[in-house]
Design brief:
300 residues, alpha/beta, six-stranded parallel β-sheet, three-stranded mixed β-sheet
Length: 300
C-alpha cells in the first residue's frame, strides 16, 4: 500500500481518490477550490490545505486536473509538486494534456529525482466511480510496473504504451474516436427522431449489433434524458485541439476528425461547454430545424 497525495478532486478525481482509499492506500487530497474532499474523507482519506501538505510525505503523487496549464501550475514553482515532493517519489499524471507537456515535465522532475508517468484515462465519470477506467501510460517500464498496485485500484485496462508522452498520444487518439462516435450517434438519433421511430427501442437494438459501442452504452441515457456532465464538452474541445495539433506535427490527415473538432467547437461557442459531450446532439437538432431540447431535456 502507498501513501498518496492526490491533487484534483473534480468529477473524475474525487471517485478515483475514493477508490484508492477503499483499496487500502493512505490518501491525502487537495483541490484548488475547497470543499471537494467530503467523499474522500468519508472513505477514510484526508484533506490537505496546500499542495505541499498533500505531497510532502507521499510515495506517490497523482494529479487529475483539466489541462496543461493546470498541470504546470501544480507541478512547478516554490509551492508546487517538484519543490515539495521527496526524492524518489512517483508522480502519476492522469490529466489529459499535450504530449510535449508530459515530456517536459518528466525531464524537469528527473532533475529533482522524481519519477513521472503520463497516465491519462478514459471511461468518464461512470468508469471513475466503478474503478473500471482504461489507463494509457507513458514512461519508464520499471516505473509502470511499480505503479501497478495504484493504477489497478482505479482501472481495469492498464497498458504501458511507450516512453514519456506516449500515454497522452494514445489519449488524443481516444478522444478523436469518441468525438467522431458521438457525432455519428447524434446524427443517428436525430434521423430516428424525425422518422418517428421509438428511440429507446432503437438504441437498445443498435447497442446489440455491429453499431454497438461503449460510447452508445454509456451515453444513451444522457441522450434520452439530459446532458448532466460526465465529461464536459469544453474539455473535449481542449482535447480535440491537442489531437489536431499533434496530427499536424506528425503529418497525419484527420478529415473526419477535423469536422468533428469544428462541431465540438461550435457547441462550445453556442454555450454548451458545461454540458456532457453527448450534447453534440443539440447541434444536430438545430441543423435539422428542430429545437435543441428533446423530450424531457432541460434547456441548455
Amino acid at each position: 500500500m502507498s501513501t498518496i497525495g492526490f491533487l484534483g478532486l473534480g468529477i473524475m478525481g474525487s471517485p478515483m481518490a475514493v477508490n484508492l482509499a477503499r483499496a487500502g492506500h493512505t490518501v491525502t487530497g487537495w483541490n484548488r477550490s475547497p470543499g471537494r474532499a467530503g467523499a474522500l474523507v468519508a472513505a477514510g482519506g484526508k484533506e490537505a490545505g496546500s499542495i505541499a501538505e498533500a505531497v510532502r510525505d507521499a510515495d506517490v503523487v497523482i494529479t487529475m486536473v483539466p489541462a496543461s496549464p493546470q498541470v504546470e501550475a501544480v507541478a512547478y514553482g516554490p509551492d508546487g509538486i517538484l519543490e515539495n515532493a521527496r526524492g524518489g517519489a512517483l508522480f502519476i499524471d492522469h490529466s489529459s494534456i499535450t504530449p510535449r507537456t508530459s515530456v517536459d515535465l518528466a525531464e524537469a522532475a528527473a532533475a529533482k529525482g522524481i519519477r513521472v508517468l503520463d497516465a491519462p484515462v478514459s471511461g468518464g465519470e461512470a468508469g471513475a466511480v466503478e474503478g473500471t477506467l482504461s489507463i494509457m501510460v507513458g514512461g519508464e517500464r520499471a516505473d509502470f510496473d511499480a505503479a501497478r498496485p495504484v493504477l489497478d485500484a482505479v482501472g481495469t485496462t492498464v497498458v504501458h504504451c511507450g516512453p514519456h508522452g506516449a500515454g497522452q498520444t494514445v489519449k488524443a487518439a481516444n478522444q478523436l474516436i469518441v468525438a467522431v462516435n458521438l457525432q455519428a450517434l447524434a446524427e443517428a438519433v436525430v434521423f430516428l427522431e424525425k422518422s418517428g421511430v421509438d428511440l429507446p427501442a432503437a438504441l437498445e437494438v443498435l447497442s446489440g449489433g455491429l453499431a454497438g459501442s461503449t460510447v452508445l452504452t454509456r451515453k444513451k441515457d444522457a441522450l434520452l434524458t439530459d446532458f448532466r456532465p460526465g465529461f464536459k464538452l469544453e474539455l473535449h474541445h481542449k482535447d480535440m485541439g491537442i489531437v489536431t495539433d499533434a496530427a499536424r506535427t506528425v503529418g497525419a490527415a484527420l478529415p473526419v476528425g477535423a469536422a468533428a473538432a469544428q462541431l465540438v467547437a461550435s457547441a462550445v461557442a453556442r454555450g454548451d461547454g458545461a454540458l456532457d459531450h453527448s450534447a453534440l446532439l443539440r447541434g444536430v437538432r438545430l441543423l435539422s430545424g428542430e429545437p435543441a431540447e428533446g423530450a424531457g431535456e432541460p434547456n441548455g
